[in-house]
Amino acid sequence: MEIKPVTSESFRFYGRIINEYDYDEMLKKLEELTDMPGDSVIYVPSVPELEATQAYEDLSNNCFGGMPIEIGYCNGTNTKLNCFEYHRDSEIDVAANDAVLLVALKQDIVDGKINSSKTEAFLCPKGTAVELYSTTLHYAPCSAKKGEGFRVAIILPKGTNEDMPDITVKNEEDKYLWARNKWLVAHASTSEAAQGAHIGIIGENIDIADLI
Question: Dihedrals φ, ψ of 51, to 5°?
Fold first, then answer.
């Protein structure tokens, strides 16, 4: 696997760079107020201090067309794929540190399965914001340098990743629903699979430790 930059032509299938807005205040608060574990990953969907910034106004009004949004974060140290998730809308990631995004296409889930060989890796440099399209499978970012962590602001429609609604399963996709506006397929080796997530990633659980 090659780690390509988000500026590469192949990234356009998964998303786009959106560096037109001022993220400085938001990223400064992200660095000052949030932890970065050295041996795990933490995700918090909504942080009031991050949402009290100009970036919130710009992203809510411009990128999401006036829809209410939440700004949270995914921080830590990670080198593995583990799972793929997707939403009914785009996700915006803003990197406070260099981070690697492992992505694939939702269309490559066939009969509830996707081979991990469909995964591509892209380096998102510090200070860069990317929109990941609703058809882009993704999960927690990965470290860009061995032994180093990352902080990434995560912007989604308000309410995403809160408690899953109580539904009656009516089709194959309903089996993947893991939280509000979050569909998930997991590799069999993961804690998510042990907790009951749909096992949908076949092949190796990709680890980029030897690539960084």
Answer: -80, -15
Exposure b/e, 162-179, CB count within 10 A at least 16 = b:
eeeeeeeeeeeeeebbbb
Helix (H, G, I), strand (E, B) or coil at 5: strand
Q: Which amino acid is at 76?
A: G
Computed from CA positions of residues 23, 81, 117, 194, in that sequence, does the dihedral angle turn out positive or negative?
negative
Backbone angles phi, psi at 117, to 5 degrees: -65, -15
Note the pLDDT tens digit of each residue in 24-79: 999 999 999 999 999 999 999 999 999 999 999 999 999 999 999 999 999 999 99
d(CA 87, CA 71): 15
